[in-house]
Amino acid sequence: MNLFSFKSTAVFAFALLFMNTNASAQAKKADDSELKKEITPLTNSLSYISKLQPLSFRYSPEQISKLNLPAGQQYGFLSEDVQKVIPGIVKSENKMIPRGKNAFRTVEMKNVDLESLIPMLVGSIQEQQAEIEKLKSELQSLKSMAAADSNAP
């Protein structure tokens, strides 16, 4: 057996070993229902969402660089207002900011987790749509009654 043939055989054997090892190490799929417990549907989402006040704002210029905040027009909510309505989506974060030469201080910042707001927004839309369908049905009934009354002798 020459050296080339030995190297080729070794590479081929290693590749087969790698493919077999890789094929047997398959990932297990984790379903959401296995991961999440105490699952309950959201109700009355619209009543919560209706209490929120969407705002446009700019961060204070002196705080932008200290706290690494974005400049320009922003859209969102005051975390204090959201915390009164939906406390679970307001998260606190401590940031260190300079307070002079070689000195820092900790500032607690509260942020609204906007991603957590999405299910409530979807629930609100569904509640509104159900109300719209109910009103459409009532309107159709009233139109039918009015048409029947106008056709009566």
TrEMBL record:
The keyword Magnesium does not apply. Residues 24-139 form the Peptidase S74 domain. It comes from the Bacteria. Keywords: Coiled coil, Signal. InterPro entries: S74_ICA. Residues 125-152 form a coiled coil. It holds the Pfam family Peptidase_S74. Residues 1-25 form the signal peptide. This is Tail fiber domain-containing protein. It comes from Arcticibacter tournemirensis. The lineage of its organism: Bacteria, Pseudomonadati, Bacteroidota, Sphingobacteriia, Sphingobacteriales.
